[in-house]
Structures are given as structure tokens and as C-alpha cells.
Design brief:
Radius of gyration: 18 Å
Largest sheet: 10 strands, mixed
Distance between the termini: 30 Å
CATH superfamily: Aldolase class I
Bound molecules: iron/sulfur cluster
CATH architecture: Alpha-Beta Barrel
Order of helices and strands: EEEEEEHEHEHEHEHEHEH
Strand content: 15-25%
Shape: globular
Number of helices: 7
CATH class: Alpha Beta
Strand order of the largest sheet: 5-4-2-3-7-8-9-10-11-12
Structural class: alpha/beta
CATH topology: TIM Barrel
């Protein structure tokens, strides 16, 4: 049985994107190869934390890492609530080489209980994503901009971008409900958003031609071929990085020229004061 490193497990409301406000059990996996300047979970980038915090409303306990998939499943069961939407696999980054197999084992076990799985990833590894995409009902893939400083150098940025796009292509093609999120900053070039949306539109319309845009994914009752595209204004760790309303209107309009499902959604968990 695979064992892996988890930073924390808790129940809360989804704070980002079109599923904001949905109740989820969060599994925050340890480690992340990127270094976004706005990262609000820097503590989860430590790849081998000694303990995993299990945060329940009534008490906080610690589990010694590395954990087995069955230990994680027991914690998921302890965190269930009647309003649950899905189990969210987040980070850090769940697709690191040391976490991907572990994530897959947990996701399969969770799926067998009848619960739905929701993956949040930076899209850093299309290979890892391909190996476990079928376990997931929802995938939210980030696309990093050059200004995020996620990686150093243009070659590394290009490699990351190609992986992110490939993750989206795989998710759409396999009928996983797909969210693409881009954190936007003051001064984010409209041309950069245009390039991303143009690339994404190739996946949407390619599928529409084959499936007339209403094809259901493998009998699971999902609409296939549609990307929910979210522009998320940065929750700035430093003043001056937040885009203006005028900038958000412009970026949203640029995206809308290429994609049909476009939204501007800030992080809402910060307003709710939850994790
Ligand atoms: S990908 Fe996520 S966890 Fe990793 S550095 Fe960026 S914001 Fe932080």
C-alpha cells in the first residue's frame, strides 16, 4: 500500500471558482514545485511534514506522516457532513511525483464509497494527471502567468504552460467537468489572456464538432467539451497587485471572444474567514 504526506485535512467551503460555497472535505497534499509570489499556502510546500493536522470543528488532532490511503479514507469519513459536495484534493500540489500514486489510491477508495472527487492542480505534470484523471468528477487546473513567478526562465515557463494545457485537454476529452483558473494581477496583459483563451478554445470547439457540444461523458451524465474559465483577481500579499475593475472588464471581454463560459470570481473563503 502506498503511503504519502498530507499537510492537513479539514471540512470547509470551496473558496474559488464556480463551485465557491460548496461544502467539501479538503485533503491538502504536501509539497509543490512552483513558487507563485501570491501563494497563500506556503506552509504546504514543505514536502515531508512530520505531522498532518486533522482539523475538526470540535478538536484538532495530529496524525504522523506518511499516511496510508486507508488512514486518509478514515479521516474523510470522520469529516463528512450532510451538505457535502465532494472531496477536494489540493495542495501544495497533488500531482508531484511523490503524491500522484497516493492520490490515485485515495481517490479510487473514495469513489468506491459513492462520493465525488474534485482535483485542484497547478497542471505541473500532464503525465501524472493522465494517470489519475479517470478517478475525478471535477478538475480545476490553474494556468500560471509569467508575472506569477511560478518558475524561473522562459523555457521553464513554456514547459509548465504546455503541461497545463495538456491537463485541460485530457480533462475535457475524458469528460471530467473542467475549470480553468487564471489569477490576474494589476497590469496583466490582455494579449496573454487572449493567447491562453485562444489555445483553450481549440479544445472546446474541437469537441463540439465531434460531439455537437452536448455530448455526455461516458454515460456519467456530464456535459462534455465545455471549459468553465475563471479570472480570479489576486488576493494580494502586497498592495498594488490587485487589478482594477476596468482591467477585469477588459480581460473578461477578451476571454469571452474565445470561450463561452467566462466568469470573474474572487477568493470567497477569505471573506467567510474559513480555511
Ligand atoms: S502552485 Fe499553489 S501551492 Fe504551489 S506555489 Fe503556486 S499558489 Fe502556492
Amino acid at each position: 500500500m502506498t503511503r504519502g504526506y498530507v499537510t492537513e485535512m479539514f471540512s470547509s467551503f470551496q473558496g474559488e471558482g464556480p463551485y465557491a460555497g460548496r461544502r467539501q472535505v479538503f485533503l491538502r497534499f504536501a509539497g509543490c514545485p512552483l513558487s507563485c509570489f501570491y501563494c497563500d499556502t506556503a506552509y504546504a510546500r514543505e514536502p515531508r511534514p512530520k505531522f498532518c493536522n486533522l482539523l475538526r470543528p470540535d478538536k484538532k488532532t495530529r496524525k504522523r506522516n506518511p499516511l496510508s490511503a486507508s488512514e486518509v479514507l478514515d479521516c474523510v469519513k470522520a469529516l463528512l457532513s450532510p451538505d457535502l459536495h465532494s472531496v477536494c484534493y489540493t495542495g501544495g500540489e497533488p500531482l508531484t511525483p511523490s503524491s500522484a500514486g497516493f492520490v490515485k489510491e485515495i481517490a479510487n477508495a473514495v469513489k468506491e464509497t459513492g462520493l465525488r472527487n474534485f482535483l485542484e492542480t497547478s497542471g505541473c505534470s500532464a503525465r501524472a494527471f493522465a494517470s489519475l484523471a479517470d478517478c475525478f468528477d471535477f478538475a480545476s487546473v490553474d494556468i500560471k502567468l509569467r508575472g506569477h513567478q511560478a518558475v524561473q526562465g522562459e523555457d521553464s515557463y513554456e514547459a509548465l504552460y504546455r503541461n497545463e494545457l495538456e491537463c485541460v485537454r485530457i480533462a475535457v476529452e475524458r469528460g471530467v467537468e473542467t475549470v480553468v483558473k487564471v489569477v490576474v494581477l494589476k497590469g496583466t496583459p490582455a494579449a496573454e489572456i487572449e493567447e491562453i483563451c485562444r489555445d483553450l478554445s481549440g479544445f472546446e470547439f474541437g469537441l463540439e464538432e465531434r460531439g455537437r457540444g452536448r455530448e455526455k461523458g461516458r454515460g456519467r451524465g456530464r456535459e462534455k467539451g465545455r471549459v468553465k474559465f475563471v479570472l480570479q483577481p489576486v488576493t494580494a500579499p502586497r498592495s498594488g497587485a490587485v487589478p482594477s475593475t476596468e482591467e477585469l472588464f477588459e480581460l473578461s471581454e477578451v476571454a469571452g471572444r474565445f470561450l463561452r463560459d467566462v466568469a470573474v470570481i474572487p477568493q470567497v473563503h477569505k471573506f467567510l474567514g474559513v480555511l
